Amino acid sequence: MNTPLQKLMNCIDHIALRSSLVALAAALLSGCVTATVQEVRERATGINASDAVVVLGRRSRPSNDETEIDFINCVAENLDNKVITVFTEAEFVDATFPWFEPRTAPVSANELPALLEEPLLAKQLEQLGLRYVVWIQGQTKRVSQAGSMTCGVSPGGGGCFGFLTWENDASYEASIWDTQEQRTAGRISSDAAGTSYMPALVVPIPIIARVQQNACTSLSNQLEGFILN
Amino acid sequence: MSTFQLTVHRYPSAPWLVMASLLLIGSGCASNRIALDTDFPVPLVTPSSMRVAIVLTPELQSYVHSEKVRRSDYSINVGAVQKRLFNRLAQGAFATHVFTSEIAETNYDGLLVPNISELQFATPSQTRTDYYEVWMRYRFDLYDDKAVLLGSWDLPAYGKANQANYSNDSQGLYAAALAACRDMAAMFSLNFTSAQPLKIWLSAAGEALPLENNVDAMP
Known about the structure:
- The complex is a heterodimer.
- Chain A contains 6 helices and 6 strands.
- By secondary structure, chain A is α/β, with parallel strands linked by helices.
- In chain A, strands 1-6-5-4-2-3 form a 6-stranded mixed β-sheet.
- Chain A starts with a helix and ends with a helix.
- In chain A, a hairpin with a 4-residue loop joins β5 (157-178) and β6 (183-204).
- Chain A has one domain: Double Stranded RNA Binding Domain (2-Layer Sandwich).
- In chain A, α2 (69-79) packs across α6.
- Helices cover 33% and strands 38% of the residues of chain A.
- Chain B is of the alpha/beta class.
- Chain B is built from 6 helices and 9 strands; from the N terminus they run βαββαββαββαββαα.
- In chain B, the strands form 2 sheets. In chain B, strands 6-3-7-8-9 form a 5-stranded mixed β-sheet. Chain B has a 3-stranded mixed β-sheet with strand order 2-5-4, with helices on one face.
- In chain B, β4 (64-69) and β5 form a beta hairpin.
- In chain B, α3 packs parallel to α5 (169-191).
- The A-B interface holds A 61, 64, 66, 68-70, 93-99, 101-104, 118-121, 124, 139, 145-156, 160, 162, 164, 166, 196, 198, 204, 206 and B 1-12, 14-15, 40-46, 129-131, 158, 160, 162, 164-165, 179, 182-183, 185-187, 189-190.
């Protein structure tokens, strides 16, 4: 007869086994992604406990490559930790309205000194404790796709047969502006590419390459190291 | 036995798109009703010392743009948020202001009457781009304290929203219309004292140096 302790151990074993199987399935159903990160440092960085960072997407009008909001949020969430305080894009642009709207936001770090001469804005940034502005540009695009799939439905049931494949390419660049020095601190680029597959033998099985997620994680990790110096 | 079969080439999301399309066809023409309902930030600008009465007309507050595009009906209601938008804008842009609903003599320095003279929009399917776009043309009629029209200031506003961030036309156009309203508020607050028609109005009203914010009334 099993003792309560043995039952608990069996339960834990089941949970561990189930978690392992889910993790294994997730790993098997993920396509391969290759990622490259490059960093250009122009000056020394560092951050105090009272300093904060904001991650913004470039939305100025001539640009046709607006960065996905999901990607901006992903980088901000990954970067936000016990050491670095990160404002969300929405709360920052509201707190500094109208200076960081698409038509009014500074395009280069050279515009920072003039911008910081605006007394109300300067006071607000000081209150927020903003030290770094991280501008992100880039997108994830589908660069190729191939294959075909046939799906059928009848009173007796349904199913799909075929094979699809597609390749995504993510290319992002982050410019880090130091508001204290009023200059660019550096740039980090994150590129990732991966091929996804979807074989279907009755049931389609998507094997997705998480290209954007990979680019986000790589960029966030590099940004954290860059800011902490 | 009847069998329905479809073949999808190259597009992984196509089976779901086909099903969604079949549902759409089955339900008739699409209708997109967009009504802005949000708050706006107060602009961080040095307020003008001009004491201004802002006239929010019923036409402005009930402005709805309706249009039929490719068998789909679109209705964009931007009027409902104009009161909130101008309330926030005035809190930042003017040291002293009051809201009123009619053009009449006032003991303030002048009357400012905002109007939306035009709204246009475009969807990615029309323009073959990735963006929902909304253009709005605001016209600000400028009256002196005796309710005499001194001039008008046309202020175009533009907003766009990337379709990658939104799942349907209504969400995309909502975001683009909201961006256009914010664009107007941004351009108004930054250019209020430098635009030529406003200079005439401000000089007629005897504009003095900027003061601390002192709001008289809220709508």
